[in-house]
Amino acid sequence: MKYFPSEIEAKWQQYWAENQTFAASNQSTKPKYYVLDMFPYPSGAGLHVGHPLGYIASDIVARYKRHKGFNVLHPQGYDSFGLPAEQYAIQTGQHPADTTRMNIEGGVDKAGNVIQGYRNQLDKIGFSFDWSREVRTSNPDYYKHTQWIFIQLFNSWYNKDTDKAEDISTLTAVFEKEGNATVNAVCDDHISPFEGSEWNAFSSEEQQQILLQYRLTYLAETEVNWCAALGTVLANDEIVNGVSERGGHPVVRKKMTQWSMRISAYAERLLQGLNEIDWSESIKESQRNWIGKSVGAHVEFRIQNSEFRIPVFTTRPDTIFGVTFMTLAPEHDLVAKITTSEQKAAVESYVEATAKRSERERMADVKTISGVFTGAYAEHPFTKEPIPVWIGDYVLAGYGTGAVMAVPCGDERDYAFANFSKGTNGMPEIKNIFNQDISEAAYGEKGGFELINSDFLNGLDYKTGTKKAIEALENMQAGNAKINYRLRDAVFSRQRYWGEPFPVYYVNGLPQMIDKKNLPIVLPEVEKYLPTEDGQPPLGNAINWAWDSEKCYVVSNQLIDNVTVFPLELNTMPGWAGSSWYWMRYMDAKNEEDFASTEAINYWESVDLYIGGSEHATGHLLYSRFWNKFLKDKGFAPTEEPFKKLINQGMILGMSAFVYRVLWSINGTDDFDNSILPNVLVSSSQRKEIELLKLELNKILLKTYPNRNDLLVREISFSPIHVDLSLINDITNELDIEAFKKHPLYTDYANAEFILEDGKYIVGREVEKMSKSKYNVVNPDDICNEYGADTLRLYEMFLGPLEQQKPWSTSGISGVFGFLKKLWRLYYDENGSVVKDEEPTAEMYKSLHKTIKKVTEDIENFSFNTSVSQFMICVNELQQLKCNHRAILEPLAILVSPYAPHIAEELWHALGHSGSVALVDFPIFEPKYLVESEKEYPVSFNGKMRFTIKLSLDLSATQIEEIVMADERTIAQLAGNTPKKVIIIPGKIINLVG
């Protein structure tokens, strides 16, 4: 009976689906275990073999925990809103909901493309997901709860005294009684003080305006990354080298009124929470750096002859007497207000140029120095000396206060800036306040100096100088001690169609929340997914997008009267909105009233194991922790942290293939156009033979232009071109030239000349990120079809440690497939089952229990690759021992089950069992089977080993001596002599001396 994986796997996948084998219960006497995979985005490209790596690992753990008696929640769903679906809709005219559904469920789309479908691909690999809890963020029954969470944030403020979010009503109660003087809140800067009587006298609109300055989600004019071509704001991680990651379009910085979230309120809790969770230190450090806690001072510099003040945060208040100039971010609010008429043109030109550079580009570029003097001067708080105010793009408006007090003697970037502008209007000589040489570079250390030229700070060190400077600033009310965070409030608006609609309408320009009972506010139909002609977001194209506040539903825009019918918000939420709480929805996915019941949330609490890519180190993981902490403050989440343990799987890399196009220049008359040279592709190793290659190229030139013998090759270089892997022999790396010429991707090379080696074109190979654009993608469906899903699962684990990058090579798959066939033959031969009920030998038990011990330890330590090796060792040993014994093969099938579940189910069934092996207890390691009962002793004569003898470990030294002395080999060695001494250490050595 042969092993046919395709039949077996289809059979058991159907069984699992029909019997809901992996459905978790929200009520169980078993201990709970929650295993989660990072939310996948369902693209039309489908899965490649790199995608399932983390899913296979999490599935092994989920299956293992079920075997160990846990009630396991292992759900799956789709992060299905996002820019890619919207861009595809713009290109093809298909509704994003249709293409998203097609990408998930599979089929043929309206453009005639065959879509495999994520769900089909995932099922084919045999994951033990509880599909009864599937969620899709783009479904209204999901995003109604995202809208509800947004409303909770809007109706909350952060109380620093209690260190948590509270309902906005508690804030208004304070305002009514005593105004805002005693309120200790995270809020906007520079809020005007008012008394309780003043608050009560304010109009409703004035009160709403003030509350917006305290709410955890609020409207504000914010500097954003605007991409006109995509018609939307982009997050920093959606920009690469100053252009949009999608499409490569220009991005500029501009101010827009946006919804923002006060994640900054949670900065310290986000920082401290990292000490409580089991994550890799690299991920924790990324988050610490992103949060960026700094201890220092807030200092205010008054602009001369004006009421304006420049607030700065500095970690070095001890250096305040070294301030030579000030630098504002080009987009700082004060720039336009303080710039003199003489400097206006230069400043405006610089501001315009800076807007074309992303924040990330400006932060990364430490070499380029640029800036412009505003013509204004600030006043030093102590000396009252004038300090020139510049703008420079190395200062960012969103970091700190958007202004720095420049101390060139103590900061390398200020030092470079001062020297770059040295001798120009508005740039004084550098002041040195350290008893150290700064002629060549700034002195940036916090030790090893005494302050000089620093008035009352002279002679002090960093620590004492900082303390005294802050005391003096506080005494004169020019500054104070402060803790600052780099973490900024998160922009929460996107000018896109395919995202969660805000549950917001506007009365006299002020936002009003829609009641929970009227949610969801569903995305309207629009004719075009692009922004409107007057620059409004795509929802501006909707015909029915107004809120009737009396009837409480969406109506035609034509009915807007600003009395009972009002305009709805035109922006949508960002992609991270739905992914910031999805693990909680899995706990109670079918709940129609609430995002999850209190009972379900209290039962599952938080995720025990989270597996996903490290690219989400700051974005998704930080926002998720923020929302979880907020929901805990509001009584909706039981734990402070959402994910107890996090593992980042390494990337599976693809083996790309390249052909090499020759780039050549020609010696000859001036009338020859190099652009009409023929395309020539050179085989990989031939690139090294430059002189021979030139001869070949000259032959091609002469053949192409027979009347131009004056043309000769001068210089050559090579341009690598990715080749579709289907066009090469994966073993020999030979290119199928004819297929290449006919391939639609390479029509430019249909008439190309090929320079071969030994009559063949050999491609170059290189390990790169697996990507459809590099044509190095391997489809897991192909592996499953040829070898089976169990082979794919084992092979991906066998490639190496989970957290490391690993190159993919199909050459090793046959070995893993061969292992599964060997495993099968322990249970079956050509005639059927060979399993017998005889008692196994000690060696058989030893092999099994070595494997139980190793696999148990490996899964607990997430070292899956070494388990696969141990399975191979065990099967080889059992094969040599001719083991077909039920007492060995039953536990072996269970052991294999988390890794290769389909074959394990079939073998378990063949052993006469009913039901699924997935729910059977995991084998227990028994140390007694690894205890050796015998020892093979080396028997030595005068220290030289002459033979070995196998003896029981229970024998005493006297018994061992009797046996050894009676052995024929000993008698022959002694040749009638009597040894002077017999040295015996039981379990170790036997040595006869003399």
TrEMBL record:
Keywords associated with the record: Aminoacyl-tRNA synthetase, ATP-binding, Cytoplasm, Ligase, Nucleotide-binding, Protein biosynthesis
Enzyme class: ligase
Residue ranges annotated for the Aminoacyl-tRNA synthetase class Ia domain, each copy included: 11-155, 764-795
Reaction(s) catalysed by this chain's protein: tRNA(Leu) + L-leucine + ATP = L-leucyl-tRNA(Leu) + AMP + diphosphate
Annotated GO MF terms: leucine-tRNA ligase activity
Locus of motif 'KMSKS' region: 769-773
Ranges of residues in domain Methionyl/Valyl/Leucyl/Isoleucyl-tRNA synthetase anticodon-binding: 844-956
Keyword Metal-binding included in the entry's annotation: no
HAMAP family given in the database record: Leu_tRNA_synth_B
Family according to the record: Belongs to the class-I aminoacyl-tRNA synthetase family.
Protein name, as recorded: Leucine--tRNA ligase
Gene: leuS
